[in-house]
């Protein structure tokens, strides 16, 4: 009958054996990832040649000063105004009907084309011409839209 195991002997590697094992593991990983490592080395070489690598190293070394400058720039009034305005505009855009916005943008694009054509013709517009075009349904619709838009803007400005 076999004797029970009472002592477990742990194999301890010497420092030299640990280094050899680590080196062997590293060489195996290098061999498996040869193409990626060559691409990475080529990229680093190009960054070094162009001076970008030196700039990045300097940037990392001066990270505290760079962070102070970045925070200082981000807290300037024009930047905070930009952020606040973008947030307000984003909030306003969420209340608009996408179909109406699409129609309006298409109308603006079409209007810009017509305006460009009008500039090319270089014709003069007189008072009688203005009165005549009021009968045009497209112009009448645009004027009505503009007047209602102005009314809505004015109502919004009461606060």
Automatic annotation (TrEMBL):
Coiled coil among keywords: yes
Domain of life the protein comes from: Bacteria
Pfam families named in the record: DUF1641 (PF07849)
InterPro entries in alphabetical order: DUF1641
Coiled-coil intervals: 13-47
Keywords linked to the UniProt accession: Coiled coil
Identification of the protein by name: DUF1641 domain-containing protein
Biological classification of the source: Bacteria, Bacillati, Bacillota, Bacilli, Bacillales
């Amino acid at each position: 009958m076999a004797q029970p195991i009472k002592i477990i002997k742990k194999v301890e590697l010497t420092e030299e054996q640990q280094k050899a094992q680590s080196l062997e593991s590293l060489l195996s990983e290098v061999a498996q990832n040869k193409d990626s490592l060559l691409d990475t080395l080529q990229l680093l070489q190009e960054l070094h040649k162009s001076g970008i690598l030196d700039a990045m190293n300097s940037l990392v070394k001066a990270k505290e000063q760079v962070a102070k400058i970045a925070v200082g720039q981000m807290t300037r009034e024009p930047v905070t105004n930009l952020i606040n305005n973008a947030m307000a505009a984003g909030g306003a855009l969420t209340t608009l009907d996408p179909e109406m916005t699409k129609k309006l943008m298409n109308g603006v694009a079409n209007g810009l084309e017509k305006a460009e054509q009008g500039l090319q013709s270089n014709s003069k517009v007189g008072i009688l011409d203005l009165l005549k075009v009021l009968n045009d349904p497209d112009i009448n619709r645009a004027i009505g839209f503009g007047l209602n838009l102005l009314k809505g803007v004015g109502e919004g400005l009461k606060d």
